Amino acid sequence: MFIFYFLFSWNLAASPSVIAGAEAEMKSVSVMEGDSVTLNPDLSKIQGMVLLLWRFGEKGSTIAQIDGNDILYEDYEVFRGRLRLDQTGSLTITNVRTNHSGLYKAEVSHNSGTSYIMFRVTVYESPSVIAGAETELKSVSVTDGDPVTLHVPQIQGDELIVWRFGDEGKLIAKADIETKSSSLYDETDERFRDRLQLNHQTGSLTITNTRTTDSGEYKVKISSNKQTLYKRFTVTVSAVPVPDSGFSGAAVTGIVIGVLLLAVAVAGVMYYYRRPITTNLPNQTCKYYS
Questions:
Q1: pLDDT > 70: percent of the chain
Q2: Whole-structure pTM over 0.90, yes or no?
Q3: What's the CATH class of domain 136-238?
């Protein structure tokens, strides 16, 4: 009888389907894609625990656990390489995506029973406008009409890359390297239409056929499972320079007038010497004397 009761109790604790958690407090957490989020359980419920299971989704799939002093992670593809669990029970998810939105449950088992802590996580897509983090500013100069490439540090393959432009931090390009999704360009901004190229291998952004209106500050946020990096560029697009003759405007005007007058004089002289010449000789009478 005791063995049956023990097995029945163990199955209730381990089975995801019974973790209703209706009586547990629900905490709401919001985070932007590419950032990290940490779920901190109530420490008073962690003390003296013998087992902690972190579950995800309505089905309650186990994604990480603390069993005594051992920290284990399930081979869950959606969270692969993203989870950090410490002995306090805090679960950190790095480089989050929208598909990480959902219900997270911490199932804490003690000798005296089991308690539950629940979090509702919402991951938002990168907003169209946001202020960028302060970081080192690199200057880049280019001539009007030429292309310019803004280079970023070497990427590993799991990054979310977000490029922004201007003081207001307007979103102009985004790519998820991990999912190999197509680059997203903001086509509502006519300024860059069909002139942006984001390299999936390097994360670098190229602006083709640059214009003076492309001058300004560019910011990139590179989020990976290990870290988040920021880079800033100030781009200056200069108009095509006009050759400098070395003369002032008045001098150039005087030279032009002088050349025109000289041309007229030369034309007059040439006309004078090349005109037809008619010679009328008077009738002469020759007289001979004997």
A1: 75
A2: no
A3: mainly beta
